[in-house]
C-alpha cells in the first residue's frame, strides 16, 4: 500500500505520545480518530484543547480539530491503520502490566478488516507483538495474521517504539530515526510507508522482537549511565569533592561522557523499562538491576541530608522547588522529587512546594496541612532550607544573592556555575 492509501488512521491512547502522534498525522492531511477511555480527555480534545503540557502541542491539536482532520472518541472505528500508544506500567512485583495493550488490541477486533495495519508504539516486553497477533487471531478466525500467515496475512502487525523525549515531542516525533519491527517483512515495509507521511528521520526495518528489545535497551542504557553519575555523586559526597566539577573535567577526555547526577530517575520510561528486560532474562541482568537500585536509592540519600540539616533549625521551613520528574514539564509520574517531598512531609516539617507547571496540589499531600503549594517568591522568602529538585527554567533564573542566607541543597547542580 502506498502512503497515499492511508487516508484514515486511528490512534488508541491520547497521552504524551498518542496525542502528538495523532495531531502530527492530522497536520499532514490524514483523517485521524483519536481514541481514549477517558471521556473528559475526549471531550477536551474535541473542543481543540489539550490535557498535557508539551510545547506547541496545544496549537497543533487546535488547528487539527478546527480543520476537521482530528476527532476524538472513546471507541475505535474502521480505519486503514491503527496505532496503539497506551501505557505499559509495571506491577508491584515489577512485572510488565500489559492489560492496557491487551484491551486496546482486543478493542480492534470488531473493526479490523482485510488489508489493515496495526502498529504497537507502546514500550513492551519482547514477544508482545506476536502475542497481540494471537489475541486478534482468536477473536477474528475469518482473517489471517502474520504470526501464522507471514507475508500473505490479511492483517499486518508491527512494533515501532516511540522514542520521543518529553519536552521535545513534536520535534523528535518528526526528526528522530524510527525503528520498525514487523512480524513479517511486509508488516515492516507497510509500517515504514505509513510513517513516511509524518517522519523525516530514517525508518530502520527489523523484526518485531528485535525492535521490542531495542526500545528497552535504549532506556536501560540511559538508566545505567545515570546510575554511574549518581554513584559518583555519593562517592564525591563521601570525599568532599564537587561532583559537578569532577564530571565536567572527566568529560574533557575524548572518550568519556558522564551524564548528570540528580535526585533519582523519574518518568514512566527509564525507571520502568529496564525491569522489562530483567523480567525476561532475570539471570543475565545483574548490571541493569544494580543500576535500578542505585537510582532508586538516591532520593533516600537526599532525604537524609535534608533532615539532618532541618534538625539544626527551630521550626524549619523547607522550600521544595519542583515536583516534575524533569525540567519544564508537568509530568509527576515516578518522580523522585515527589518521593522526596512526600517523605519530608511525613516528618511533619513545614514545606512550601513550588511547581510552576501544576495548579492543584497533588492528592499525595492532602493529609498534610503543613504542606502548601505556593509561588516562588513566597517560598524563597519563607524557607530556611531551599531544596532544588527539578531544574525548571524558572529556578535557573534565581540569583545566588536571593538564596545567600539559606541552607541550599541543589540536587541538579544548576546554581554552582554562577
Ligand atoms: N536524568 C538524570 N541525569 C541525566 C539525564 C536524566 O538524572 O543526565 C533523569 C531526569 O531528571 C529524569 C530521568 O532521568 O528524572 C529521565 O529523563 P530523560 O530526559 O533521560 O528521559 P525521559 O524518561 O523523559 O525519556 C526517555 C527517552 N529515552 C532516552 O533518552 C534513551 C526518550 O527518548 C524515550 O522516548 C522515553 O524515555 C520513553 O518514552 O521511553
Order of helices and strands: EHEHHEEHEHHEHEHEHHHHEHEEHEHE
Helix content: 25-40%
Distance between the termini: 57 Å
Number of helices: 15
Mean pLDDT: 96
Share of β-strand residues: 5-15%
| Small molecules held by this entry | ligand SAJ
Low-confidence segments, given as residue ranges, are: none
How many beta strands in the DSSP annotation? 13
Structural class: alpha/beta
Taking all Cα atoms into account, the compactness measure Rg is 23 Å
Overall 3D geometry?
globular
Strand order of the largest sheet: 3-2-1-4-5-6-7-8
Largest sheet: 8 strands, mixed
Reconstruct the topology from this structure.
Elements: E1 8-12, H1 18-27, E2 31-35, H2 39-46, H3 57-66, E3 70-73, E4 81-84, H4 99-107, E5 117-120, H5 128-139, H6 146-149, E6 156-159, H7 169-175, E7 178-182, H8 185-195, E8 203-207, H9 208-239, H10 243-250, H11 273-280, H12 286-311, E9 317-321, H13 336-346, E10 350-354, E11 371-373, H14 376-382, E12 385-388, H15 393-396, E13 407-410
Parallel strand pairs: 1-2, 1-4, 2-3, 4-5, 5-6, 7-8, 9-10, 9-12, 10-11, 12-13
Antiparallel strand pairs: 6-7
Helix pairs in contact: 1-3, 4-5, 9-10, 9-11, 9-12, 11-12, 12-13
Amino acid at each position: 500500500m502506498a502512503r497515499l492509501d492511508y487516508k484514515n488512521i486511528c490512534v488508541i491512547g491520547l497521552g504524551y505520545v498518542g496525542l502528538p502522534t495523532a495531531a502530527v498525522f492530522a497536520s499532514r492531511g490524514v483523517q485521524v480518530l483519536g481514541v481514549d477511555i477517558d471521556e473528559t480527555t475526549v471531550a477536551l480534545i474535541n473542543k481543540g484543547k489539550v490535557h498535557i503540557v508539551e510545547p506547541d502541542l496545544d496549537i497543533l491539536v487546535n488547528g487539527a480539530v478546527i480543520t476537521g482532520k482530528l476527532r476524538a472518541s472513546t471507541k475505535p472505528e474502521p480505519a486503514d491503520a491503527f496505532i496503539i500508544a497506551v501505557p505499559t506500567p509495571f506491577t508491584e512485583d515489577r512485572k510488565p502490566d500489559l492489560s492496557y495493550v491487551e484491551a486496546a488490541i482486543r478493542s480492534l477486533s470488531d473493526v479490523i478488516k482485510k488489508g489493515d495495519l496495526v502498529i504497537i508504539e507502546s514500550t513492551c516486553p519482547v514477544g508482545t507483538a506476536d502475542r497481540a497477533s494471537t489475541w486478534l487471531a482468536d477473536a477474528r478466525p475469518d482473517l489471517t495474521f502474520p504470526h501464522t500467515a507471514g507475508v500473505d496475512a490479511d492483517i499486518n502487525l508491527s512494533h515501532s517504539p516511540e522514542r520521543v523525549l518529553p519536552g521535545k515531542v513534536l520535534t523528535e516525533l518528526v526528526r528522530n530515526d524510527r525503528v520498525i519491527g514487523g512480524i513479517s517483512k511486509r508488516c515492516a515495509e507497510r509500517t515504514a510507508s505509513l510513517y513516511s507521511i509524518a517522519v523525516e528521520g530514517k525508518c530502520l526495518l527489523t523484526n518485531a522482537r528485535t525492535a521490542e528489545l531495542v526500545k528497552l535497551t535504549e532506556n536501560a542504557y540511559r538508566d545505567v549511565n545515570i546510575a554511574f553519575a549518581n554513584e559518583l555523586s555519593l562517592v564525591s559526597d563521601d570525599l568532599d569533592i564537587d561532583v559537578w566539577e569532577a564530571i565536567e573535567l572527566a568529560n574533557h577526555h575524548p572518550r568519556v561522557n558522564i551524564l548528570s547526577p540528580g535526585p533519582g530517575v523519574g518518568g514512566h520510561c527509564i525507571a520502568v523499562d529496564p525491569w522489562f528486560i530483567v523480567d525476561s532474562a532475570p539471570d543475565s541482568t545483574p548490571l541493569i538491576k544494580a543500576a535500578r537500585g542505585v537510582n532508586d536509592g538516591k532520593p533516600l540519600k537526599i532525604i537524609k541530608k535534608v533532615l539532618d540539616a532541618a534538625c539544626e533549625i527551630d521550626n524549619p521551613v523547607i522550600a521544595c522547588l519542583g515536583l516534575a520528574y524533569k525540567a519544564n514539564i508537568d509530568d509527576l509520574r515516578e518522580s523522585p522529587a515527589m518521593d522526596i517531598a512526600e517523605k519530608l512531609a511525613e516528618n511533619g516539617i513545614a514545606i512550601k512546594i513550588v511547581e510552576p507547571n501544576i495548579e492543584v496540589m497533588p492528592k499525595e499531600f492532602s493529609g498534610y496541612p503543613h504542606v502548601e503549594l505556593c509561588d516562588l517568591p513566597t517560598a524563597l522568602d519563607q524557607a530556611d532550607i531551599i531544596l532544588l529538585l527539578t531544574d525548571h527554567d524558572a529556578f535557573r533564573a534565581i540569583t545566588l544573592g536571593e538564596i545567600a542566607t539559606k541552607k541550599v541543597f541543589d540536587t541538579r547542580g544548576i546554581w554552582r556555575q554562577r
